């Protein structure tokens, strides 16, 4: 991250940490996020694939001591886990999109456990094109969630209807379509038979998601307890959260690979 980006990141982090400046922080975060991803796109499309496993600043402090492949993986694994496991409570993009198969990554964690040559070795194994598609899918998924949150915020009077903190064109279209659909429903202008059929599909989809969510929640609770036990903690707090989430991802990885618990070391 160059000095300009580092300064922007520091400023946005500070703004988001205060209630009085939170809105300003969001206004700056969205375009900064798009700027960074545009740079990632340019790098992926312009650099040879072997460049993504190189470590020209090995041993230095900061992300420039890592490889480009590792940095992309690490950043978007964190976003995927936080947005889908912790906030949206649904399946991670890595699994729902079967990207763990196409990327060929030897891990499913964020990669915090990797150092030095292990980072270089990891980077040589991953498929850079598939990794980029995964990062793009995570970004787009998060953006869709932002669209929904923005619409809810406007309908509840938290922000002005003509205020667009996210992508203005996409927000404009999404909000117009959603409002039209809701208006059609409220005015009774839709065919009852077509609505009934759509509702049946809606119910089937919700029931499937409920079953998946219940199973996933039970599994996560079990893994969370196991992670806390292995680390010697009794609960998750601000100080140990990152370590615990890493351990949860590690346990999930072991289970996916079929590693017996008595051989986990």
Task: Note the run of SSEs as H and E.
Answer: HHHHHHHHHH
Shape: globular
Q: Runs with pLDDT <50, length 5+? A: none
Strand content: under 5%
Q: Terminal Cα separation, in Å? A: 35 Å
Count of discrete alpha- or pi-helical segments spanning 4 or more residues: 10
Rg, nearest Å: 21 Å
Helix/strand-derived category reads: mainly alpha
Main pleated sheet: none
Let me know the number of strands.
Answer: 0
State the helicity in percent bands: 55-70%
Mean pLDDT: 82
Question: Can you walk me through this structure?
Answer:
The structure is a single chain. With 265 residues, the protein is an all-alpha fold. The protein is 69% helix and 0% strand. The chain is built from ten helices and no strands. It has helices at residues 3-16, 22-46, 68-87, 93-96, 99-103, 116-125, 128-155, 168-186, 192-231, 241-257. The chain is globular, with a radius of gyration of 21 Å.
Short description:
The protein is mainly α and 265 residues long.
Provide key terms for this protein.
mainly alpha, 10 helices, single chain, globular, 69% helix
Tell me the layout of helices and strands.
Elements: H1 3-16, H2 22-46, H3 68-87, H4 93-96, H5 99-103, H6 116-125, H7 128-155, H8 168-186, H9 192-231, H10 241-257
Helix pairs in contact: 1-2, 2-7, 3-7, 9-10
């Amino acid at each position: 991250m160059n000095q300009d980006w580092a300064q922007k990141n520091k400023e946005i982090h500070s703004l988001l940490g205060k209630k009085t400046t939170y809105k300003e922080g969001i206004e700056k975060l969205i375009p900064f996020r798009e700027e960074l991803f545009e740079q990632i796109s340019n790098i992926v499309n312009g650099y040879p694939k072997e460049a993504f496993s190189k470590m020209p600043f090995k041993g230095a402090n900061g992300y420039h001591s890592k490889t480009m492949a590792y940095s992309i993986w690490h950043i978007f694994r964190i976003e995927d886990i936080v947005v889908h496991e912790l906030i949206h409570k649904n399946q991670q993009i890595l699994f729902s999109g079967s990207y763990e198969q196409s990327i060929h990554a030897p891990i499913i964690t964020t990669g915090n456990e990797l150092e030095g040559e292990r980072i270089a070795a990891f980077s040589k194994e991953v498929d850079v094109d598939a990794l980029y598609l995964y990062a793009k899918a995570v970004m787009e998924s998060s953006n869709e969630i932002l669209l929904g949150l923005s619409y809810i915020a406007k309908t509840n009077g938290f922000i002005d209807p003509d205020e667009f903190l996210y992508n203005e064109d996409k927000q404009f279209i999404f909000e117009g379509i959603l409002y039209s659909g809701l208006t059609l429903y409220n005015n009774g202008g839709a065919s009852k038979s077509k609505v009934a059929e759509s509702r049946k599909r809606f119910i089937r989809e919700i029931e499937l998601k409920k079953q998946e969510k219940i199973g996933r929640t039970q599994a996560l609770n079990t893994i969370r307890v196991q992670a806390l036990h292995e680390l010697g903690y009794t609960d998750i707090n601000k100080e140990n959260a990152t370590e615990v989430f890493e351990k949860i991802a590690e346990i999930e990885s072991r289970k996916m690979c079929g590693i017996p618990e008595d051989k986990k070391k």
